[in-house]
Specification:
Distance between the termini: 29 Å
Number of strands: 2
Strand content: 5-15%
Order of helices and strands: HHHEHHEH
Helix content: 55-70%
Strand order of the largest sheet: 1-2
Largest sheet: 2 strands, parallel
Length: about 140
């Protein structure tokens, strides 16, 4: 995906927005499932030539609130469309996962923007745009 899609688009001067990258692997496989960070780092370095995004947005929310949203979203889907394996994990798992993401963000503060995901879709979108605009020197007026 990186070599076929992301790098060519960046090379053409386009913006690339991705919903997951290596930080998710560190959090989910590392803190969530106990795989060592050194192993994940080695795999990332080999697979991506140590490529990292210019900016990473972490939408932060208390696990209980996030799970509540996920449950509402899942309930609206048909039985065949549901993907609830992470929602079925214990609350402790989600707290560990959140702490892992926050720790990764703190260790990589030059590219991370931690944004509260509490509030309406419009409020969260506004906070995201504000950070994107500030980071890349864009007009705040959408």
């Amino acid at each position: 995906h990186l070599k076929r899609t992301i790098l060519p688009a960046l090379g053409a001067g386009k913006w690339v927005i991705s919903d997951r990258y290596a930080d998710s692997t560190f959090a989910y496989q590392g803190a969530g499932h106990g795989l060592g960070a050194a192993v994940i780092q080695d795999i990332h370095r080999i697979a991506t030539d140590d490529f990292w995004p210019h900016m990473t947005i972490l939408l932060d929310i208390e696990p209980e609130a996030g799970l509540g949203r996920a449950n509402v979203r899942e309930a609206a889907l048909s039985e065949d469309s549901r993907e609830d394996r992470f929602e079925r994990m214990t609350g402790n798992y989600h707290h560990r996962l959140r702490q892992a993401f926050l720790s990764i963000a703190q260790q990589n503060s030059e590219r991370f923007r931690v944004i509260s995901a509490a509030g309406s879709v419009g409020e969260v979108a506004g906070r995201i745009w504000q950070q994107v605009a500030m980071t890349f020197g864009l007009d705040h007026g959408r």
